[in-house]
Amino acid sequence: MQPGKKMKQAAWALGLGLALLAPATGQAMSAEDAPESVEIDTLAELYGPVSFDHAMHTDVAQCSDCHHHTTGTDPTDPPCVKCHYGREEGETVSCTDCHAAEPFIQENLKKLENPEIFHIDKPGLKGAYHINCLGCHQEVGGPTGCQDCHQMTEAGEKRFDTGKFAPAGYRPGAEQHEPEKKHE
Amino acid sequence: MKKFSANNPAIPIADHVKHDGSKWTIKEKLWLGLTPQEYKKQFFRNWVNWLMLCIFAVGIPIILQRYLFGLGAVTHASNDYPWGLFLGFGLFAMVPLSASGFLLGTTVEVFGRKDFIPIERLALLNGLLGYFFAVLYLEVDLGMPWRLPYPMFVSLGPAAVLFLVAWHVATYLSVQIAELVPAFGEWSGWLKGKRWIKSITLGLTIAGIILSTLHQGALGALFTYAPGKVHPLWFSAEFQWIHFFCSSIFAGLSMVIVSSALCKWTMKWRADDRFLGSVDNLTIGLGKGCSYAMITYLVIKIVAIAHDQEWAYLLTGWGQYYLLELGIGVVLPMFMFAVAVKNRWAGMVRLAALISVLGIIWNRLNTSMISFNWNLYPEIPHWKEVWITITIYALYFLTYRFILYRLPILYEWKGEK
Amino acid sequence: MTEQLSRRRFIKGGLAGTVAVSVLKDKETQAAHDFEGYPDAMGVVVDLTRCVGCRSCEAACNKEQGLPEPAEPFDDFSVFDYMFHGQKRRTDEAHYTVVNRYEVPQLDHPLFRKMQCNHCNEPACLTSCFVNAYTKTPQGAVIYNSKVCVGCRTCMIACPFYVPTFKYSSAFSPRIMKCIFCYDTRLKDGKPPACVEACPQEALTFGKRIDMLEVAHQRIRMEPGKYIDHVYGEHEAGGTSWMYISPVPFDEVGLDTSVTREPILNYVKGFLAIVPMVLTIWPALFAGFHLLATRKDRIKESQTDENQEG
Question: What H or E segment, with its residue span, contains residue C244?
Fold first, then answer.
């Protein structure tokens, strides 16, 4: 990724972090403290940004479903309880603060060499978004198609040889499915 | 040819000088002492030549297609079956059938069985041409045929089995050329070369044994790279090389029997009394060797099944097919050889040899193509692949005959030698 | 009589040689150490519970490696229905990696599995190559040099995972086409391969192979019942850089569970060990046979010589 992009990401992370930090005073955050909606665009490249309706999601899910222990709710998973039980809410609750945008760069891989580290398998930012969002959507029947959440960009069409970059002479088959709907 | 030799007692050529005392030129020798018109006449009188022309008429354009548009143009371009008929038949079957050279070399030069001399050169020629055409098949199959010398001189991978095959086939090819220098020397009058080769014959022969043991074995060992792909019955990590080596013994001998029979029946004019008078006896002698090699082979085959605990496979469809191959390709000719040798029936030895030649081709195709990927789908070669294989074989046949017509293989040179 | 004698001797000699050879061979095989891979080799865990079959990895690979334009867009999922000779899609000269869909009875949804070169610790392709066209780099990639390849395709025979493919379509510059772990453009600079970077689900996790093994085992341990307790590639074919964890038995997602535990080379070592034996023993053996077989002739010769002298 280009350095300019990185800068932008960092600025975004900081901004989002600060925004979420500001109202954090109580034992546990309440949904009202959260923004109405979040524009998730740190990783936008092949797909455009996601307009995340945060308010709507607070109605259908617990804070901890996405924010784990950082919003002040005690974890229930036995391995998490060991360290995170009874802790106060985190200083930041933004995804980008814990989940690296580039999990596999040397700098991040080096961290795994620390024998003290427990979280050797923390997904990167993109993984975290998709595993969490898509995982839940599959369970509760939310939208699961790629373009249900984010529109493919021109760069994306080029990458996937689709849209205006579709192979010459290609005629789409009678049935064309988004991957997750395929089996339904 | 018979007609010509009846008219002209100097034909077939077996001497440097004509009856009138003048010398045959090389050109005249090449034309078999005939005028071009006569040569053409005898060529077109033979139906076999017409058959060859038909094969070439289709085959040569396809071969050109292969070199201009790639292997994908003439084969199914399978990534699951990287090796097809060019190697399955051309390399894996041609090489054992050409073991004759080292076998007869060993019999005559090492064991001192001078009685096999009348057939020795035929065996050497059969060996040389078989190897040469195996390399030719390889040149059709290799993706980059122009890089044939790479494993020797450019980039060496000495730990690979194929490296062994490449080096041994190449050196053995040279050994076989050297072993046939005497025949060429007599015919062309180049006697210096002949004498030198004569002095190192024993060394060449022993080199031939070593190289043959290793590369015949190595062709089998190539399949030990594919333990999950070749059906367990045709696969044996420990014994594969012995199977291939041991079967090459009767394969090579059988091929000489078949070849000598064809010479006896169709090339009487070219053979001399020494050959014609001894060929039946020698056939029986070779048949005896075949039956010994076959029983040894059969035992090792069974040992391999026992070693890998594969008895249960024999009850499956593959097992029955395996038993069919062994039954028809080995057990049947083995008994035929034994019975025929005991009763001194040369004709039956020849039939048994033909069966065993086909049996060995069957075995090599089974190992390299049919039982290969036994868990996947069967691959049926493209017709063009089949045709090219036949075309190269036709070329092999013509070259074989071309040399037999001329060099003192089936007859003794009467002139200075 | 002489004929029988010499033949019998021939066979006997052959057997004796074989026995000697096989005794020595075992020693050599035992002495040979197994190579367990470079300590800093990188690896990837493919988690089949995460893959959703979006084909992003295929698209990324295609662009990164400059492969030909595909026949259909990478967001066309009808390719999962494609069958050839009853087989699902496989790698070929235009695809270094492919994703296939597998319907499994235990789950209410299908599973998807990506295939590519597994980058064995002791690669069969490498050990079978007679021109040294393959290299296993310290970073774990199995790379290929098209400049020395002669196109014999033995590597394709040897690969237990059916990965290398041949550019059959080319007459003048054919070559082997296979995944190289993005070695040239990424891995050698410490970057993950393009497919890993493209995966939205992080179904592909990249890191040092030893760390990835730990990650794989941790995932299996942390969520009992979610995975089959086996990491495919930990030992398969002697261990591979790319490894799989799956919620269903591996053969149900098209992975060959009969693949050998040892490196393919171990099956070939037996033959390789006899080579020096034949090279050294045969000349002596057959020279001996020659002397024995021709003894009578020579005695006769010397007798006639003596007679002539006397």
Answer: strand C242-245
